[in-house]
Amino acid sequence: MTELLPDPVPARAMGSARLRADGPAKVTGLATYAVEHPADDALHLWLVQSTVARGRVTSIDPGAALAHPGVVAVLDHTNAPRLVADDPETTDPELLVLQDDRVAFRGQIVAAVLAETSEAAREGAALVAVRYDAEPHRVELRDDSPAYAPESVNPDQPTDTDDGDVEAGLAEADVVLDQTYRTAYEHNNPLEPHALVVTWLDDPDGPRVTMVDSTQGVHPVAATLAPMLGLEKDRARVRAPYVGGGFGSKGLPHAPEMAAVLAARTVPGRAVRMAVTRQQMFALTGYRTATVSHFRLGARADGTLLAIDHEVREQTSALKEYAEQTATPTRMLYAAPHRRTRHRLVELDVAVPSWMRAPGEMPGVYAHEVAMDELAVACGLDPVELRLRNEPEVDPETGKPFSGRRLVECLERGAELFGWADRTPEARATVDGEWWVGSGVASATYPTMTQAGSQARVQALGGGRYSVAVGAVDIGTGARTVLAQIAADALGVRVDDVDLQIADTDLPMATVAGGSSGTSSWGSAVVAAAQLFRRDHGDDPDAGVHTTASASQSPGMEEYATHAFGAVFAEARVHRYTGEVRVPRLLGVYSVGRVLNPVTARSQLLGGLTMGLSAALFEESYRDPRHGHVVTQDLATYHVASHADVRGIEAVWLDEEDPHVNPMGSRGIGEIGIVGTPAAVANATFHATGVRVREIPVTADRFVD
After folding, report:
1. Per residue in 392-445, pLDDT tens?
2. Per DSSP, what are the bridge partners of residue 447?
3. Which of 39, 223, 460, 575 has its C-alpha lying 20 to 30 A from 240's C-alpha?
4. Is the full-model pTM beyond 0.90?
5. pLDDT tens, residue by residue, 308-321
6. Active-site residues: which are they?
7. Same domain for 681 and 696?
8. Cis peptide before 353 (omega within 30 of 0)
């Protein structure tokens, strides 16, 4: 394998509005998702979950379950295969399933039932009798809960930062804002739940495992599970041909996947099929922690910021630490000579939180942008103008120049398209029948990242056709389509002449589909392999010749601060008597480098805007403090935005490319759409009603006396 830094690629296929390559298979039902993959003589797995939040299992009686027709086996901590857990570098505490009698949270897997049918497995699980020695638990994120500073925040950023003297800046300020903002617990709810078909095989060369998994990264799954199973990574084959969404929850394997592999290990040669239920997802597959952001902003009378202080309090799990990077966007969004950020964690006896679309950026920018709206009101300024006055010349955190920062243009272009000039400055000034009407704005940002390690292989098929292979996963974002466009331009051929292979650990290594880094990471590797192939074999190669390469990180990623930017505008209507909130207009304007495919890009941005609207108005998981479980554990009680809630919504972008990030000139777009949207909606409800709500979701009761 050769590692190259690929040169920029001329855009021919890139930038064209090409329809999704997987569209026909999906709309006709021919796309085979994880649990649908055929497997002869497959057994079905059902999980038994703890009913206490903390304690020990004192006894498990599987007798009634084993007597049930169709039940083959019951696994628990007394008979499950042992995992390798002696290396802290490779041992994930969340994945130590059925290894001891400890219960760390309500809903933890305490047993698993294998049966000939799904119905028998479910009924058998209900018959397993489990007794516990319950211990006192803590499951509430309270303002007075003991908290600590983690060593770093996701993924490896500083916990705290200090620039200048915040107290001095606040003392010098003419206007000081001091408020607290809260975001709710949220759960990833992709349409396809976590699911897999797994087979353990005892070969003459040693054991191996094969999986068809609903995951955002086949190589990360193999790399995570294999060491704990006592296997080399190449003895675990993972495929993910089609994935019905993930939103971060499928970025790494969770406990159900390990439970299914352990079950398969007890019946070598037989496949085990498991789909996590919607209810089980609320305990076992990650979620966004609630956050409490205390903001202090100090400004001159003209709105110029002098001090920014952002302290975050959020929750982690006693089982495994996860620190959401909520205050990190505050470090670079606006200019101010005095800035400070803090992260503090409250350790609770709860399931492990994890990635959810724009972890950190979504809740952090929500708090910052509502605070900026309040500051604009206090200074008597238009909210757009306040943001323009605090635009930094360089990255406030690092001092580096931006590879491209066109936030001002996003704000100005959005204001023009939205008709912002017609907005009345005063809140609660516009009435349409029984509805108060208002508008709000918020900035958005998301870091542009490229993960190291992805590789790609190019092989000549003859007749001007090429096979391009990379182990990337398309979770519904359009990666299949866009990677083929990148490959076509790098090889100098038509897109239809590229046979793209993805989503299999038998293919070259690819990083996870996360952090809005997939296209940049995988595309750079594809370009590197294509350019090396053409250098070595020319444009008329013999069939069968092939080249594998990976791409070094662009020097621009070190020389420049690399971020995507955007501005979100929202119109809110609040019913004068019931408090019902409707959002008839939502607009996002973005600076994201070269847009490689307008069709898939618009879909991603609209999806992010919709998810942000959903967070603003609906999404909230409620944990019962008495028992430690999430009460709202289905889509009837955990509300997400539906078609009726998403009315006039549009996403546009500036025409540009970023030559400092990757050879395609693109930045990530998967997550920025959700950033800023909840704040824009919340700010619009204030403008409509004059009532300031400082936590999301913004619900009707906030506006009713």
Report:
1. 999 999 999 999 999 999 999 999 999 999 999 999 999 999 999 999 999 999
2. 563
3. 460
4. yes
5. 999 999 999 999 99
6. 671
7. yes
8. no
Residue partners of 432: CB distance under 8 A and separation at least 6: 573
CB of 360 within 8 A of CB of 325?
A: yes
pLDDT tens sequence across 238-278: 999 999 999 999 999 999 999 999 999 999 999 999 999 99
Q: Are residues 403 and 538 in the same domain?
A: no
Give the pair of three-digit tokens for residue 680. 């824009």
pLDDT of the residue at 705: 76
- Give yes or no for a contact between 63 and 115, defined as CB atoms under 8 angstroms apart: no
Question: How many domains in the chain?
Answer: 2
Tell me if 665 sits within 8 A of 601, measured CB to CB. Answer: no
Asked if residues 71 and 120 have their Cβ atoms less than 8 Å apart, the reply is yes
Q: Are residues 460 and 584 in the same domain?
A: no
pLDDT at 5: 81
Q: Which residue has the tokens 């599970």?
A: 225
* Dihedral angle sign, alpha carbons of residues 185, 629, 627, 91: negative
Torsion of CA 415, 419, 424, 426, to 10 degrees: -40
Ramachandran angles phi, psi of 328, nearest 5°: -65, -40
Confidence check: pLDDT of 140 > 80? yes
Cis upstream peptide for 81 (omega within 30°): no
Q: Which two tokens stand for residue 397?
A: 């955190």
Tokens matching residue 282 = 């609320």
- Residue written as token pair 């009634």: 64
- CATH number of the domain to which 695 belongs: 3.30.365.10
Asked if residue 627 and residue 583 are part of one domain, the reply reads yes
Distance CA 250, CA 219 (A): 13
Helix (H, G, I), strand (E, B) or coil at 49: strand
Among the candidates 509, 527, 552, a domain finishes at 552
Tokens of 336: 């101010």
